[in-house]
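Can't paste images in this forum, so I'm doing it all in text. The chain is below; anyone willing to post the predicted structure tokens underneath?
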Amino acid sequence: MRKPFSFFPLILALPLAACFDVELSLDFPGEDRAEATMIMVATPDFYAMTTSTGEDFCEGEESMRENGDHVCTETKSGTVDEIMSDPDFGDGMIIERRDGGLIYVAFDLGDISDDIAPPEEEGGDEMIAMMREAFEGHAITLRVSGDEIVETNGTISEDGTTAVYEIPLSLALDGGASLPETFNVLLNPGR
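Text version of the structure:
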């Protein structure tokens, strides 16, 4: 099974199989501290698919909702250097220190269109119609927070402390063409 936070490439390759939601939150509560939380909510079908090989669904805290959805929560915290040097943290993300005590975070979204594009095959239109209905309302949400968001290509919260980028799973059906190369955030960490 994947190690904590190495899920990012996995979630980009799985949307065609079943429905789920993922939220990755990366918080910088201090100049040299980072806290990451990944919450994955899997429908019963997705849960059954991921556990059919006998592997665990979750390496963190697992719970089940009344509707049968399975929730996996994984957390990691440490210094910025510890987070970035940990091979389990995952591919597709950069954290850099910038002048003035700022921190730059970038999630690579460039390969998503290749990873999540639906297969081209006979009967594909019917499959895409079914998938569009199943994907409706499901997303991958990336959140980065600190004391102040200086710049981002995402959406800034009203209090100016969090940048959010939501990737609807329905983008898989459109080849992900509307995504930027990266979701990036320049921020002042907490003090």
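The radius of gyration is 17 Å. Residues 7-188 form one domain.
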